[in-house]
Design goal:
Order of helices and strands: HHEEEEEEHEEEEEEEEEEH
Number of strands: 16
Radius of gyration: 22 Å
Oligomer: single chain
Shape: globular
Helix content: 10-25%
Largest sheet: 6 strands, antiparallel
Structural class: alpha+beta
Distance between the termini: 33 Å
């Protein structure tokens, strides 16, 4: 049996009776060696693409085997490469996605001269520690400035409520990216520079609708909408705008296209 699986099973079995530091140290040791594994895979990917950087486009998928001779056998990494004018007509980027049964990492490099510079370093997500699941990624204009941005989607394994987590990186004119923005259950509207979505909360109860607006690289909070309940009966909604409140009888039409609107409404058929 895989030694890593044995270690994790032992950890889960005895963590209730073991000092917290013992559990944390084991997870830290696993994470550190896995981080080195990902770093080796990234170095290998950059080396592969470096030989063909004159191409306008290149893509590949392959398994990167564990050759680090660590103290446990880990699953091979599934590596996906995309290279070329992915985000801009003026800059070439290399997108590297690494994923296995226990770890996932997405990284973007910018070709500057003859060398690659890492411009997005996505922290490795360890399924053992965070129970986060990597859902996928999208290249699209998110803030309405005409430049293609990078959106990485995750779904946490723990929690009571709908939790589509989007980690967003906005492209800058020089080919680099902003630091990470994180949104919960968002629907992006780049034409109007808006983000509408549903906050983390119970369906039909504590979950709220929200609307944000891009202001350059800043995000302004415009409004929230909550349910009004009285004597276990819903009597409408309340809209919060700055420090003002306004009672409304129905959900504004602009929110009806939000991906997770059914979670806010409280449809009994909705699942996580």
């Amino acid at each position: 049996m895989n030694k890593l699986i044995i270690a994790i099973a032992s950890l889960l079995l005895f963590s209730c009776n073991s000092p917290k530091s013992t559990k944390d140290q084991l997870l830290s040791d696993i994470a550190n060696s896995d981080s080195l594994f990902v770093m080796k895979a990234l170095e290998d990917a950059v080396k592969k693409v470096g030989k063909m950087k004159e191409r306008d486009f290149y893509s590949a998928e392959y398994l990167f085997p564990d050759s680090l001779n660590m103290d446990y056998i880990r699953p091979d990494l599934q590596v996906k490469l995309q290279y070329g004018f992915l985000f801009s007509e003026n800059h070439k980027h290399l997108l590297v996605e690494c994923e296995s049964e226990i770890i996932a990492s997405t990284n973007v490099f910018l070709l500057k001269g003859d060398a690659f510079e890492q411009v997005i370093l996505s922290p490795e997500t360890y399924y053992v520690q965070t129970l986060m699941s990597y859902v996928g990624d999208t290249i699209m204009d998110i803030n309405g400035d005409g430049l293609k941005d990078y959106d990485v989607m995750w779904y946490p394994g723990n929690g009571c409520c709908r939790r589509n987590v989007h980690k967003v990186y906005l492209l800058k004119g020089d080919g680099s990216f902003t630091s990470e923005y994180e949104f919960m259950n968002p629907t992006f509207d780049p034409d109007n520079k808006l983000i509408r979505g549903v906050t983390y909360g119970h369906s039909g109860s504590t979950a709220e609708l929200y609307k944000y607006k891009w202001n350059g690289f800043d995000v302004d909070e415009l409004e929230y909408i909550s349910h009004i309940w009285w004597d276990e009966q819903q009597t409408g909604f309340v809209k919060y705008i700055n420090n003002d409140t306004l009672k409304i009888n129905k959900i504004p039409e602009e929110y009806l296209g939000v991906y997770d609107i059914e979670w806010f409404i409280g449809d009994d058929s909705v699942s996580l």
